[in-house]
Amino acid sequence: MRIKQPEISKAKAISYRVKDKSTCKVCGFEFNREQLHSGGGRLIAGKLTQELRRLYEVSKRYGKVYPLAYSILTCPQCLFSSFPTDFALLPPDEVEKLKKATLDRRTSVEKIVGPVDFADDRNLVSGAASYLLAIDCYQMRGMGIAPTPKKAICALRGAWLFQDMAEEFPKYGFEKLSEFLYLKSVSWYIPTLEIMTNGREPHEQFINLLGPDTDNNWSFDGVIYINGYLTRKYLNQLAPTKEKKLEYLDRSKRYLGKLYGMGRASKSKPSVIIDMAKELYEELQKEIDTINGVPPTAPAAS
What we know:
Layout: E1 15-23, E2 30-36, E3 44-48, E4 54-57, E5 73-74, E6 81-82, H1 92-100, H2 102-113, H3 124-138, H4 147-168, H5 174-198, H6 219-233, H7 235-238, H8 242-265, H9 271-292
Helix pairs in contact: 2-3, 3-4, 4-5, 5-6, 6-8, 6-9, 8-9
């Protein structure tokens, strides 16, 4: 399968190559990392979705720009991928595992999106593929770099980009991969909630990457909200029994209750996340009542 990827006009560049070279510790390849230019009308912010994703309007000069496509650093030669902060933090045992898996990485990603050259400028296709590669690589990383929250973020961002892919290329079934990544994301967000309290993976390794989008870091508040949102959305897939459904819903509701309560007591928390948390809390309670057979409360008389 080969997807025709859009060409980017050099006269209307949306990105540039940094001068300092990055060196891949897995294969030794040197390359110049690509970064998104800031300003100049490249990003025209639109609405914030219920998933805390920032949408962007199409620029007349630059067309569609996908800032998420530039977050993951990928070696063009061996396809080792990670957030930039983790790219050079590779102990010898991880280097060996990642080196042995090079062919598997390339084969698996090409089965999904076709041949993709990470020496070229990023676009929607290579951006989406980079998150698949990063998830695969973080599966082989140690707890010291906090792989679980990073896999959760990569899966969610990958789900968003493959959702965009399904709209751009409707005949390839990318919506199924997007749904799969949403489910993987919530499966990692659930343990991330526990990591936030037990510190099993170091907070300083992921606190600045929690996003979930690149425009605003909602930090732990975002983790609580997204976990609740995705738990409700994929409840039937996550929990096959009534008891499990109630367990997942109750846990998410308790976290949201704390977020909403702390938000009301603190003026420092943005009202948008507090309002969304309150609305989601009420929706989870309705879901719990429905499962328990509690009849809906009649609206108050005016």
